[in-house]
Amino acid sequence: MRIFQNTNFDFLGKRKIAYIFSGLFLSIGLLSLLFRGIEFGIDFKGGSEIALEFEKPIQISEIRDYLSDLGLGNVEVKTFGGETGILVRSELQEIPAELFPKVIETLEQIINKNYPDASFNLVDSTKASVTYQVSEKEKLESIIRTLFQNGFQATKFSQEEDNDKFIVRVGISDWIQENLLANMPDNKFQVLKEDNVGPKIGKELKRDAVVAVLLALVVILVYLGFRFKFVFALGAVAALFHDVLITLGVFSILYNVIPGLNLEISISVVAAFLTLVGYSINDTVIVFDRIRENIKIHKTAPLEDNINKAINKTIPRTIITSLTTLVVVTVLLFFGGEVLRAFAFTLFFGILIGTYSSMFVASPFVLEYAKRIKKGIQF
Amino acid sequence: MKEFRFRIILILGAVALSLYLLYPTYADSQNTKLINSKLEQFRDSLRTTNPELSEDRFERLVSMREDEIYASNPDFRDAREKRIKLGLDLQGGMYLVMEVNTAKLLEKLAKDPDQKFLEILNEAEQQAKIEEVNVVSILAQKLQQNNIRLSRYFGSIRQDDSEIISSLEDQESDAVTRAIEIIRNRVDQYGVSEPSIQRQGARRIIVELPGISKEEDAKRLLQGSALLEFKIVREADFTIQVMNAVDNKLAELLKSPSDTVNVGDTTAVEDMTEEQFAREHPFFSIAMINPQSPFADAFVRQSDRPKLEAYFARPEIQNVIPDNVLFAFWAKPEATQDGEEIYRMILVNKKAELTGGVIVDAQSNIDPQTSAPIVNMQMNSEGAREWARITGANIDKRCAIILDGVVYSAPTIRNKIPSGNSVIEGIGDLTEAKLLEIVLKAGALPAPVDIIEERTVGPSLGQDSINQGFNSTLIGLFLVAIFMIFYYSKTGVIADIALFFTVLFIMGILAGFSATLTLPGIAGIILTIGMAVDANVIIYERIREELSTGKTIRAAIQSGYSNSYSAIFDSNITTFFTGVILYQFGSGPVQGFALTLMIGIACSLFAALVVTRVVLDMMAAKGMKVNIG
């Protein structure tokens, strides 16, 4: 079976249309980035995130109400994998000082309700936990279990025989869990995953991501400049910027538009972008390799012809590889689960745009550059 | 055919190697099923024999039994070690990054900190958060600005600022070491499987705890400060008495009403004696005493520890052990026998003579006279007084140094120590001495750590991810394979074979290098499936072109391949580079992705350039019709 064999499409002749097309998408993307911005996940912003799976379907709006006046500031609630899962996110990493007393009060109320004659007192407290001493050691394990059932992480202070203290974790996720349990006692949930990222780590990850992307661009520039002429390297990198910016634009435009598609920049999304960079270069190099070959063989032919022929000859391969990769990424998008969704989406769009840019951005760039410097390109 | 022999052998060798490397993963999954059913049986039996056990204890005993099963069968251990490791996002578990809270450490180390100091310290702490500079240097700066000498709060008046700064930085680094040992101790005790505790940089610790099913377990690690205790070890006579009592009671309890001695073959006498011994002396058969030694220390195999713990948990046994003593295990194993570790167990007083708060400092050294490793220990005045009394009253007895319930050393008290400065001898090597130094300091000095990053994946999400990843891989593989046959007919099948080999080789390499498979890693494999066909497509399209210029099939294959090399090479190298960069800058899951991407590129290149080539060449040589669609 064949498709697109022996085509003779004048790609470069039509490049002005491509410019308009690209220009349009880039502008829309940039406008959206400026005004709507993009959303960073807690990997970069820091904060707490907890994914819960309920036994029965839930209403997001209901949960938002319960969690909105918890004193945790801005709390986001999104769906997570179906009608029974939610993702709760807070910008804070630990319980704020003003809220602390209320949490302690709730904790003590729980103990008092279930063990009215137990006497206990606070012996230590840190930002993230409180330690109590009970007078009746035998009640220790059941108190711990009760707290656990009410959403608080509690455990024995030490494994000593005569230990009479217990320590309770007082964290964002505990407070959220306690409140949800109190408000929806007949819809039990389990914790699917939980993330807590401090601001320092968030900053470091941001820095690392930027360095990684810049390094990738430099490496590619150098390698391509070495294997091809410098102008080709520039063309490839130009196509890359084009791809990354438009994909970022799509992120910005579609953020929160499609339910179930959580488009925020997390570490795996950055990984997807880097992969996209690698893949797009892949594509572009195939075309450039053909151009290089054509120039070597047809030394006297005009550059435009050589490039056009090269693109035409490589179309079958470009289409097929893009197709197979796209099929695979689509499978990931639909069957790969919630965790990988944004990752798969990035690749999906990126591959589409990357294929387009190999044919309509990278090569025209080379041509325009050659025309400006009024010199031909020889290998 | 001769010309192909080398390549065919190479390919078959690679396939065989991959299958061999992957076998443990398969074996382990089968073993796990078997073990889980055994554990179910154990659970039921435990419920009947020990119905009063708390949930905590119960789960702990079950997990110890699991360890026992693994320890007893070397094949199980082998398969477990060699299988493909699953990342935390696939098997569930906790990932923690902890950092020493330098400000708090400085606060605790400072002598007579006043309000001014605390204010300046607070400022320094805030500043350190914004800039990325060390709290110690900022504090030193600020104190200088306020015309206060560092020696007012730290070190001695004779030291100048730079000396004190560097000693404080050492303290910081020390604190991390202490924290790591404390955490490791607790993790070992609570039986987390394949935990990982790594130091990162000067101030951080990375802890990975796979398979934590209840978060509660993990939190134990981070709570409370370490408890260092000095407890007197009971004399041999008394210890043997207690052990005998336990042994007799145990034999009584375990005797079943229908206990008869099998008068069978005389050839099985040796086995019967061992069995009989185990029946008559259940305690001593697993807690072995060395008759030559003046001490009544018992040695227990790792796999027997759960059994022993279960025995100790029984109220009848607890009644037989006097209220003021308990059995304690050594932290590190004594020796290894038949691939199993042996732990020493001693009987100590329940009440501690002293706790770690009295220790001021400890150093590991080499004794200049004997060249043996020793540890020097200094106590404060209150501790020194007590210590003088304790050592005076217990000469020739041993004193166990216990951290969080586990024994690290039990040196003999030779004479009364009036000054609070003790020398601990009889240490095996310098490593042991250094460990003891850390332990002594751990009980005395603070090691405040903050959790700055924490990620937990529950087991159900982990299992879901595995399923989704697995399904996606199969579907992706299937669709791409179908397409290749559709577009390239017979040679498409060849490309598909190369594709399957690619996936096989990737998995084999992951297993061979004990690499970790994460969810993004699976995504990397799926992506590789999509991209792996690329090389084949380039080659096939080129061959089609060459054929259309009229070349023979053999010549077309030849030139098709040679003309494609440059394109394939250049394009894949750049993707490989991005993989390398991702590996460097990523962590955990992202690294898993970069890894499978890089391995995938290498394998797909091998498959396309060697496997497909060989098959095509063979077909052409045999004169078969090579139909490239």
Write the layout of secondary structure elements.
The complex is a heterodimer of chains A (379) and B (629).
Chain A: H1 15-35, H2 42-45, E1 47-54, H3 60-68, E2 75-79, E3 85-90, H4 100-114, E4 120-125, E5 129-134, H5 140-149, E6 153-156, E7 165-169, H6 172-183, E8 189-197, H7 199-227, H8 230-254, H9 267-297, H10 303-335, H11 341-372
Antiparallel strand pairs in A: 1-3, 1-8, 2-3, 4-5, 5-7, 6-7
Helix pairs in contact in A: 1-8, 7-8, 7-9, 8-9, 8-11, 9-10, 9-11, 10-11
Chain B: H1 2-49, H2 55-72, H3 74-82, E1 85-86, H4 88-91, E2 93-100, H5 102-109, H6 115-130, H7 135-145, H8 161-189, E3 196-200, E4 204-210, H9 215-219, E5 228-232, H10 236-254, H11 269-280, H12 282-286, E6 287-289, E7 298-301, H13 305-313, H14 315-320, E8 325-329, E9 335-337, E10 340-349, E11 354-355, E12 359-366, E13 373-379, H15 381-393, E14 399-403, E15 406-409, E16 421-424, H16 430-444, E17 449-457, H17 459-512, E18 516-517, H18 519-548, H19 553-585, H20 589-621
Parallel strand pairs in B: 1-18
Antiparallel strand pairs in B: 2-4, 2-17, 3-4, 5-11, 5-14, 6-7, 7-10, 8-10, 9-10, 12-13, 13-16, 14-15
